[in-house]
């Protein structure tokens, strides 16, 4: 290849690249119009936080949503980070049905890690990308009122149902969105740690998916996006299911297709939709710009659960 032909083919390649980018931007326009002024709740899980580059891209996507007139609310997790801190302090931790059994000592660590370090790191990440984020926990502005979670388990031998005590694990039974509204009206992005307050001044540890679902329902969100570490809801042969009705989602839990951590995730999505959120989406937080693909492209990303 001569120098002239090499230069002309590299020009053609960069022109094609440029056209591709311009087309993507132009295709996003109807979605930007449709969603301007709407609220999107995004749950950012602890597993996705490990990668610095992905964290920056996540923060950039959140700032972009705000820039095009969408109101993002971030609810974050931090399960692995809580686990590391408990290990360092030599405090044992166990899970029942995906929920961390949380005694008095553990809830202090959970609050410190979630409302302290993780919440502020995320605020900083978003601010570094040009946004204006404000961190809060469910205690701030009386945001998340919680009550003790009750779980029972039937003993297979005696067939007696036993009550399991998870300690300070909370169920968000009332979310007061007033403070969120004021933060949004001021042009800021709320970043929420899944900590709730109880009727007797208790601090409750809330599963981050559950907290995000409750916040989404309370603010009448257009979408609830749960970022996780799989492509979405998969069939038994591991292919991605792009869309599910509420009844189909319930059937996947009943027939065992969804198991482990996917069960509370799907349940959260169903509850949010039943309480007025337009649709919930489970998508892969490990894929760069998964949020943008979901919101601004025809095909979307992950699994959308809604009224079909
Ligand atoms: N049908 C299914 N489709 C996708 N993932 C599933 C399914 N059933 C179980 N899972 C499991 O659920 C996990 C996601 O839940 P979890 O680990 O609690 O996520 P996170 O830590 O992001 O909250 C997946 O990594 C996968 O192992
Ligand atoms: C009650 C309960 O289990 N709370 C969770 C809260 C954090 C969380 O949910 O974080 P991820 O989304 O990163 O898993 C915990 O203690 O791990």
UniProtKB/TrEMBL annotation:
Q: What is its main location?
A: cytoplasm
Biological process according to GO? L-arginine biosynthetic process via ornithine
Keyword Nucleotide-binding in the entry? The reply is: yes
Show the GO MF annotations.
acetylglutamate kinase activity; ATP binding
Annotated site (Transition state stabilizer), which positions?
A: 43, 265
User: Which reactions is this enzyme annotated as catalysing?
Assistant: N-acetyl-L-glutamate + ATP = N-acetyl-L-glutamyl 5-phosphate + ADP
Q: In which pathway does it act?
A: Amino-acid biosynthesis; L-arginine biosynthesis; N(2)-acetyl-L-ornithine from L-glutamate: step 2/4
Under InterPro entries, the record lists: AceGlu_kinase-like_sf (IPR036393), AcgluKinase_fam (IPR004662), ArgB (IPR037528), Asp/Glu/Uridylate_kinase (IPR001048), Glu/AcGlu_kinase (IPR001057), NAGK-C (IPR041727)
- EC number of the protein: 2.7.2.8
State the superkingdom.
Bacteria
Kindly list the positions annotated as binding substrate.
Answer: 78-79, 100, 205
Identify the CDD domains for this entry. Answer: AAK_NAGK-C (cd04250)
Domain Aspartate/glutamate/uridylate kinase residue range list: 39-283
Subcellular localization is given as: Cytoplasm
Q: Which UniProt keywords apply?
A: Amino-acid biosynthesis, Arginine biosynthesis, ATP-binding, Cytoplasm, Kinase, Nucleotide-binding, Transferase
Query: Which cellular component, as a GO term, is one annotated location?
Result: cytoplasm
Record bears the keyword Nuclease: no
Function, as annotated: Catalyzes the ATP-dependent phosphorylation of N-acetyl-L-glutamate.
Q: Which NCBIfam families did the record assign?
A: argB (TIGR00761)
Please report which protein family the annotation says this sequence is part of: Belongs to the acetylglutamate kinase family. ArgB subfamily.
Name of the featured protein = Acetylglutamate kinase
Please tell me the species this chain comes from: Nitrospirillum amazonense
Identify the coding gene: argB
């Amino acid at each position: 290849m001569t120098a002239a032909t090499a230069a002309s083919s590299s020009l053609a390649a960069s022109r094609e690249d440029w056209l591709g980018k311009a087309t993507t931007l132009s295709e996003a326009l109807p979605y930007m119009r449709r969603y301007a002024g709407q609220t999107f709740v995004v749950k950012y899980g602890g597993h996705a936080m490990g990668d610095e580059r992905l964290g920056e891209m996540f923060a950039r996507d959140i700032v972009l949503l705000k820039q095009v007139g969408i109101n993002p609310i971030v609810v974050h997790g931090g399960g692995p980070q809580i686990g590391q801190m408990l290990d360092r302090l030599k405090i044992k931790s166990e899970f029942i049905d995906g929920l961390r059994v949380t005694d008095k000592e553990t809830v202090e660590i959970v609050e410190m890690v979630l409302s302290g370090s993780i919440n502020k790191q995320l605020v900083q990440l978003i601010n570094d990308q040009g946004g204006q984020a404000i961190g809060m926990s469910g205690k701030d502005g009386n945001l998340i009122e919680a009550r003790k979670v009750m779980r029972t388990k039937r003993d297979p031998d005696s067939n007696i149902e036993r009550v399991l005590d998870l300690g300070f694990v909370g169920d968000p039974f009332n979310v007061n969105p007033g403070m969120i509204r004021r933060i949004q009206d001021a042009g800021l992005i709320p970043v929420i740690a899944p900590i709730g307050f109880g009727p007797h001044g208790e601090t409750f540890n809330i599963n981050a998916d559950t907290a995000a679902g409750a916040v989404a329902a309370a603010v009448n969100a257009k979408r609830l996006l749960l970022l996780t570490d799989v492509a979405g809801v998969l069939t038994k042969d591991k292919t991605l299911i792009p869309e599910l009705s509420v009844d189909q989602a319930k059937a996947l839990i009943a027939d065992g297709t969804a198991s482990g951590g996917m069960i509370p995730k799907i349940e959260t999505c169903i509850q949010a939709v039943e309480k007025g959120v337009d649709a919930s989406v489970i998508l892969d937080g490990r894929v760069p710009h998964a949020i943008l693909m979901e919101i601004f492209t025809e095909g979307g990303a992950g699994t959308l659960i809604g009224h079909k």
